[in-house]
Design a protein that fits this description.
The complex is a heterodimer of chains A (522) and B (379). Chain A has 17 helices and no strands. Chain A is mostly helical and 522 residues long. Chain A has a single domain, classed as Up-down Bundle (Cytochrome C Oxidase, Chain A), CATH 1.20.210.10. Chain A is globular, with a radius of gyration of 23 Å. Chain A starts with a helix and ends in a 36-residue tail after the last helix. Chain B is α+β, with helices and mostly antiparallel strands and 379 residues long. Chain B has helices at 6-18, 21-24, 37-70, 86-114, 150-155, 252-272, 279-293, 295-298, 316-319, 322-331, 347-358, 371-377; strands spanning 122-129, 132-137, 142-146, 178-181, 186-192, 197-201, 206-210, 216-220, 226-232, 244-250. In chain B, the strands form 2 sheets. A 5-stranded mixed β-sheet of chain B has the order 3-2-1-5-8. Chain B has a 5-stranded mixed β-sheet with strand order 4-10-9-6-7. In chain B, helix 3 packs antiparallel against helix 4. The longest helix of chain B is centred in the N-terminal third of the chain and has 34 residues, at 37-70. Classes of the chains: A mainly alpha (522), B alpha+beta (379). Chains A and B meet through helix 4, helix 11, helix 12, helix 13 and helix 14 of A and helix 1, helix 3, helix 4, strand 7 and strand 9 of B.
Chain lengths: 522, 379
């Protein structure tokens, strides 16, 4: 009897309640990742509407109000629904396995952090069906425009509060886990890079998300309770919102890229069969980037009319970020140098990440120069820039990470040919999609417009064609992931020849409860 | 559509243009050098940092490519095991830092020059509002609205059936352009009445946000006569794509005669406000005002956009007591896109548009509103 009971205690319960009540880090990681995949498709479909409307000049498919809702919701869903939950899902799955912990430090909090999200996004997406439509003032929610939102307004604010609560609780859990749950011998200076980058990201989350909560709450009281935080007629200042928002917003940008640095720092050494170059300088670089992220916010708002001293300060601090970012890229290249490279699907995504993220970094350096930013600001050049860092940066790293760890999670090898097809289609189409947007911006096309002057027509059509192919290519990814979950050739514990770390010492898939006794760190 | 394969031929031309940037201007690939010292400085910095980035990319991606080709397992590469090199790491931290310092010097000089708005020859206040610009020549006592031209507005409606390619300067043409003299230092003061807008003319070299309750300063000294077009650059609601900027730079003599003409027109308009208008006059003027000021929200048929912008057709305001209608148009509704138009429109414009709204789309209030009534209501 005891043997049977014990056996049962190690198996997941069956049915829906397994997922609803789970406190298991692997289950919650899976939930986060599947939710993120769903939101990636939802946010992507909004992008398809945008690109379809911009396919040619004139308004054909949607009116301007719907278009503005699409741009706003695309950003909110992709940031808070797709990219951030994907990283939290990867953290849930991998951090306990990498540090030899049996689970996250706060398993019930973990369950709660996830289950807030479906409700938050049900609220947010429901606003699209409300009278007056969803939020249409951009994801940045600048007042006074945002205050013209109709019935959707309080629902959006509440949804953002819920997302913030979820993120902060997730971050607290990750910090606590990393500080308290490491196996004996897993010193901070031996911590895998993914764990390090997530530790720093979690501190950014704890510091930045409450600032967003404060900013949107002030918007709420301005609209309904007669305050004038951002109303000049009442003694307030509309620009103050932008300062507060970007004090959250810039760290938020790095929240969405630092864990990507971590993922790439695992994939490149694995497929170069060579240790990561400059482990310690990688950590110092991430810390420097995290610190700088708090003193560069006003580069998002150079055109609001700041004093000269302010413009100079934010220009200097912004371009300084190129130094630690450069160190990271140089380290990855040095890791590859004189390795024995092979090019399985995760490596292809990681290498592309390095190149295309760097292109986003270059345009970032250009944008950091205040006198030229007066031209670039609020144009498609900016759109191209942040899609290079967010799509070919964050999303490509996540996709690479999924291919890298999918055999470990499911116990099945994915279809390598399908993975490579997905990669090549994505690589080509994403550049057709976003590279011409640099030209559009430089030629004078503002962002967030549903219709444009005819000299922008050709590049918009090319960009849209790239967008449709890129969108369709992601369905291959969905198919490949579902197929791998359902079956496939059995994966070995090691999975990849060059893989290093505790997570690869466990079976594939790992047991439902792993490291119930601390592993011995060699 | 020029030619049977416009996309393909233009793509080929554009790719050809990539190899020589000066020729690329025709294909709209690069930033304009513009017509002011500021825009030329921005262009120079842009090209410096662009080529710097290209140079770094060639070195870094070249090293990557070398490793990808030469150090692959398929070629039998044996992995080295090095993972640190302090001197190398110091070098690739210090050298980029020095490059950045070198970049910051010209950027700082350019910025200091840009912010120097002193000793301007004339000052123009630029006011953004949903969705048009207003220009006030502060030294001359004249001012006017600049609104998207009718052809673009008609072609830009959803499923208008008009091919935008047939419209001259689609979305980049206005009824009243901003006219300025060349060779003079012009100070622009930007502000807004409702939400944040951003006044951007690429040929002048910058954009500046127009923020309600605040005034920003910029300047330009335009070298060459010509027409320079731009757009609002900050999301400002459903008409964001439809508030272009047209700057016409002329010789000082042409500018002076334009000024004299404007002053005469505005004086005549002021005189017209004191007489009684016929219904036909009011309806014709009202239609014109409606088309520039009201149509973006309330739509051509007065039906509005359900849930967002209220209908006028059959509405309680437009068919009820005239005093309430005047109050709504003159004082607006706080916290919505409905602005207090008393501050923006003349007496006869307001009288005409109210008359028009009460007697169109099946509204049959029948009454006329005269400019004198508006003047009285202003107190």
């Amino acid at each position: 009897m005891t043997e049977l009971a014990l056996h049962h205690a190690h198996e997941p319960p069956a049915g829906f309640t397994r997922w609803l009540f789970t406190t298991n880090h692997k289950d919650i990681g899976t939930l986060y990742l599947l939710f993120s995949l769903l939101m990636f498709i939802v946010g992507g479909s909004f992008a398809m509407v945008i690109r379809a409307e911009l396919f040619q000049p004139g308004l054909q498919l949607v009116d301007a109000l719907t278009f503005n809702q699409m741009t706003t919701m695309h950003a909110l869903v992709m940031f808070f629904g797709a990219v951030m939950p994907a990283f939290v899902g990867l953290a849930n799955w991998m951090i306990p396995l990498m540090i030899g912990a049996p689970d996250m430090a706060l398993p019930r909090l973990n369950n709660w952090s996830f289950w807030i999200l479906p409700f938050a996004f049900a609220l947010l997406l429901s606003t699209l069906f409300m009278p007056g439509g969803g939020p249409a003032g951009g994801w940045t929610m600048y007042p006074p425009l945002m205050l013209q939102t109709g019935m959707a307004f309080p629902f959006v604010i509440f949804a953002i509060h819920l997302m913030g609560i979820s993120s902060v609780m997730g971050a607290i859990n990750i910090i606590t886990t990393i500080f308290n749950m490491r196996a004996p011998g897993m010193h901070l200076r031996r911590l895998p890079l993914f764990v390090w980058t997530w530790l720093i990201t979690a501190f950014l989350l704890v510091a930045a998300m409450p600032v967003l909560a404060g900013a949107v709450t002030m918007l709420l009281t301005d609209k309904y309770f007669g305050t004038s935080f951002f109303n000049a007629a009442g003694g307030g200042d509309p620009v103050m919102f932008q300062h507060v928002f970007w004090f959250f917003g810039h760290p938020e940008v790095y929240i969405m890229i630092l864990p990507a640095f971590g993922i790439v720092s695992h994939i490149v050494p694995t497929f170069a069969r060579k240790p990561l170059f400059g482990y310690e300088s990688m950590i110092v670089a991430v810390m420097s980037i995290a610190f700088l992220s708090f003193i560069v916010w006003a580069h998002h708002m150079f055109t609001v009319g700041m004093p000269l001293a302010g413009e100079l300060f934010f220009m200097y601090s912004t371009i300084l970020i190129a130094v630690p970012t450069g160190v990271k890229v140089f380290n990855w290249v040095a890791t590859m140098w004189r390795g024995a490279l092979s090019f399985e699907t995760p490596m292809l995504w990681a290498l592309t990440f390095i190149v295309l993220f760097s292109i986003g970094g270059f345009s970032g350096l250009m944008l950091g120069l205040t006198p030229v930013d007066f031209q670039y600001q609020d144009t498609y050049f900016v759109v191209a820039h942040f899609h290079y860092v967010l799509v070919t940066g964050a999303v490509f790293a996540i996709v690479g990470g999924v291919y890298f760890w999918l055999p470990k999670w499911t116990g099945h090898n994915y279809d390598e040919r399908l993975g490579k097809l997905h990669f090549w289609l994505s690589l080509i189409s994403v550049n057709v999609l976003f590279f011409p947007q640099h030209f559009l911006g430089l030629a004078g096309m503002p962002r967030r417009i549903p219709d444009y002057a005819v000299q922008f027509a050709d590049w918009n059509m090319i960009s849209s064609l790239g967008g449709f192919v890129f969108g369709a290519a992601q369905l291959l990814f969905l198919y490949n992931v579902v197929r791998t979950i359902r079956g496939g050739a059995a994966a070995t514990p090691q999975v990849w020849e060059g893989a290093q770390g505790l997570e690869w010492t466990l079976s594939s898939p790992p047991p439902y409860h792993s490291f119930t006794e601390p592993p011995i760190i060699p | 559509m020029p030619g049977p394969h416009p996309i393909r031929s233009r793509l080929v031309a554009a790719l050809a243009g990539l190899w020589s940037f000066p020729a690329a201007a025709d294909y709209a690939l690069n930033l304009t050098a513009g017509v002011t010292s500021i825009s030329r400085e921005a262009y120079r910095l842009h090209m410096i940092v662009l080529w710097l980035c290209v140079g770094i990319a060639v070195v870094v991606f070249g090293a990557m490519l070398w490793a990808v080709v030469r150090h692959r397992k398929a070629r039998g590469a044996i992995p080295a095991q090095f993972h640190d090199n302090t001197r190398l790491e110091i070098a690739w931290t210090a050298i980029p830092f020095l490059v950045l310092v070198a970049l910051a010097v010209p950027a700082t000089q350019a910025l200091i020059a840009m912010e120097d708005t002193a000793d301007a020859d004339l000052t123009i206040k630029v006011t953004g509002q949903q969705w048009r610009w207003r220009y006030d020549y502060l030294n001359e006592g004249i001012g006017f609205f600049s609104t998207l031209d009718d052809k673009s507005a008609a072609a830009g409606r959803k499923n208008s059936g008009v091919d935008p390619r047939t419209v001259d300067h689609y979305l980049l043409a206005v009824d009243n352009p901003l006219v300025v003299p060349v060779g003079k230092k012009i100070r622009f003061l930007t502000t807004a009445t409702d939400v944040i807008h951003s006044w951007w003319v690429p040929a002048l070299g910058y954009k500046k946000d127009a923020i309600p309750g605040f005034i920003n300063e910029i300047w330009a000294r335009i070298d060459a006569p010509g027409t320079y077009r731009g757009q609002c650059a900050e999301l400002c609601g459903v008409g964001h794509a439809m508030m272009p900027i047209v700057v016409v730079a002329t010789s000082d003599a042409d500018y002076q005669s334009w000024l004299a003409g404007m002053k005469a027109t505005q004086a005549a308009a002021a005189a017209a406000a004191t007489r009684a208008w016929s219904k036909d006059e009011l309806m014709a003027k009202g239609q014109q005002v409606y088309n520039t000021m009201c149509i973006a929200c309330h739509q051509p048929g007065g039906e509005g956009i359900p849930g967002v912008f209220k209908p006028l057709k059959g509405s309680a305001i437009a068919t009820g007591p005239v005093a309430a209608h005047m109050d709504r148009v003159m004082n607006g509704v706080a916290g919505t896109a409905m602005q207090p138009f008393a501050k923006q429109l003349s007496d006869e414009d307001i009288a005409a548009v109210i008359t028009f709204e009460r007697n169109s789309w099946g509204n049959v209030a029948g009454d006329l509103v005269q400019p004198g009534q508006i003047k009285a209501a202003r107190k």
